[in-house]
Amino acid sequence: MKKRRLLQSGKIASEIGLGCMSFAGFYGPTDEKEAHDTLNMALDYGIDFLDTANVYGMGVSEKMIGNYIKKNGNPFIIATKASISRDPKTQQRTFDNSAAHLETELNKSLERLSVDYVDLFYIHRRDQKIPIEEVMGTLLKLKKDGKIGGIGFSEISPSSLRRASEIGVVDAVQSEYSLWTRSAELGLIQTCEELGVSFIPFSPLGRGIFSQTPPDPSNFGELDFRKNNPRFMEPNFNKNLELLAPFKEFCAEIGVLPSTLAIAWTLKQAKHILPIPGTRSSSHLVELALGSEFELTDEILDQINSFLPIGWAHGERYSDDQWVGIEKFC
After folding, report:
1. Active-site position among 56, 68, 122, 177
2. pLDDT tens, position by position, 204-227
3. Which of 30, 62, 299, 300 is deepest in the core (most CB within 10 A)?
């Protein structure tokens, strides 16, 4: 597994990380043994960068990682997030970037993870009532106190990133980015590169659409994020499968799995990109790790672009409810 710089301090990590939202059952049931098997497999393939959050299963994902660390020590570079709260009855989200909330939630995360600090701490969603400059002040204090190694933001705009960077060093920005979600190319990836900020794509496999066997919406559970996602609802879903067919046929012709090629494509877009595909399956993880080894030629890139041009996907990437809290900039 190749390495890339993650933090502006020079700290490096595996160029492919592991998104741990699925440890909390967002894409189907799982258990701690399966999660720990996946973590072991990640280390076997050189993946040492984990991404989680306090709201993934209301702490479940962090606890699974923490229990692994209790048994095995901590071989990982860990990123977690805070600022989203959920009503336990309605599941409605609210956002809080206040100093008291962020420090309280970080302390809880550290306890669940069984660590004294995390390498990277994100603002999961912006609380627009609090200026981002004030939020940066809170994060810089947490860094000074030794609780976090780096500062990150999830789903912010290039303009917000510039404002934050005027106050202190921002190490990473996280947003959805894949062969079917390319809006980050409209300024965010470029601004990150200009400012020396790592860009961390989540859902680089389109929430399973680039798997060899596509997901079946009829099997989505109530907690599955895709259940109410426009791209997985008809008539969009079947149209997307139809448009993906030539790409998957091409993958078969050149002897590579679609998920492996999708990861390789993401890595190829820029040197400051570190994708964090999520999986709860150790066998599926192998497909993702191979994306670091696949040699993506210009000819293959041209073929991919001919099959999947920018904007090919049918349906918005989020429903109206799912868009709440995300800074739109184009």
Report:
1. 56
2. 999 999 998 889 998 888 878 899
3. 62
